[in-house]
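New to this. Explain these tokens.
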Amino acid sequence: ISGEGEEVPLTKDAPVEPDAERNRGNVERWLSEMEASMRVSLKQLGRDAISKYKGAVRTEFVQSWTGMIVLATDCLYWTVDVEAAMKAKGTAGVKEIEQRMIAELADIVQLVRGELSKQARLIIGAMVVLDVHNKDVTSLLVEKGVAAATEFDWNSQLRYYQEPGEGAQAGELNILTRMMNASLPYSYEYLGNSMRLVVTPLTDRCYRTLMGALHLSLGGAPEGPAGTGKTETVKDLSKAVAKQCVVFNCSDGLDYLAMGKFFKGLASSGAWACFDEFNRINIEVLSVIAQQLLTINQAIINKLERFVFEGVEISLNPENASFITMNPGYAGRTELPDNLKVLFRPVACMVPNYALIGEIRLFSFGFERPRELAEKMVNCFKLSSEQLSAQDHYDFGMRAVNTVISAAGLNKRKTPDSDEAILMLRALKDSNIPKFLTDDIVLFSGIISDLFPGVDLPEADYGSLMEMMKVCTLEMGLQVVPTFMQKGIELFDVTVLRHGLMTVGPTGGGKTCVKDMLAKSLSRLKAETKEYWEVKQLVMNPKSITMGQLY
């Protein structure tokens, strides 16, 4: 059962028996059985899905299988179809595939607009994102006149094949991913049912470098400013080859012993790790880490099954890999020592293509004119960053764009038939207005009314919440002032969109009071009318405890 609530039955061919005699008292034994069983189950599911895909109606197929298997099968058949078309008819064949894909995409988007279970909606959201990319690649092949599977424009894409395994798995058909001369086996690690990243040309370039690095048993090192998708690209590549990827945020408190434990786990389990902001670790520690990584790297190159690491002999799973991401030019960052640089392939991540990402994400939410709305959103952020005052807490980067897209998607799901410009306008307002200063709100409203001429936002109705907030404000001995109520509503809106938030303002500006008043209102509504939810507040003063205790 995944975090999203998707359930996958384990196969009977590889039983897991925690109570068996051989497993008593040894949790790692039956957990290893569990892991093996997971892989066997997903392989069987994969083979079944691949054999059934040909005869199935695509819109039904999507809803009847596990998310990651649907995506893998989809990409596998895309590869097979394109290569078969090239062999049979050359460029004309690829053009036919392109036409067919456009029709298939239209069918799937029709599905998104209808009633779906939560799981099917997640799967289809991810599938639309991948399908749009596959369609774009197919269009590129048509444009460049690619007629053979050996040409570079086709060879440089991430392709899925089904090939017989080697060694212990001989005779089994397993999925394999290829890109240029590098290939990685599909790991059949169950990763739940999660969203996939929009693949832009930048993402493709990063994949090429990372796959090339993994082919040589090296790691990858994406670097670039914040919000350019360094970590996300690594996480998405791991989803593409079904690998578990552990993201770990480095701080200057890390020593070589803690990292040694981390690497031991990676080497034995064959997982991937992405160390974020790696250059914050102290330089003395980095040179030891380089030595630890070199040990693992040598063991993989020499195809050892067991090797000695930090004085302990451990088993080696050669599929493990480490990635590091770095933000250049921050205070407290160190340059990497040379013996560490050698083990990582650098990848430069620059500003992502906001308009393309926005367009495809909105498309996957079932919007009918995603391009126009995505361009308006990007222009809105561009103009805001140029015209509004410069504040420390303003951010018009990828993270802000992402929040607006998610909000627009939620609005679309609530009211699928209303005007799309209104949905986008509401998303832009809800996620931006709470953080702007009074003077900037006037400018922002000007920008928005220029971008969406003649679109009027109906006032949102917070009936029972607004009434309860007035009651609670009076009970707290405060006056019901319109701005105070407005801030209460804004705080509520932000809690719906975000996990964590920060109230900024001068002392005595009412930051704590708004928070307490909203918490009280929500809890009382839950108790009296079963609306909203109960709020528990835990207050901490970070200045009174040490960094370690806080962590």
About this structure: DSSP finds 20 helices and ten strands in the chain. Residues 144 and 153 are 8 Å apart (CA to CA).
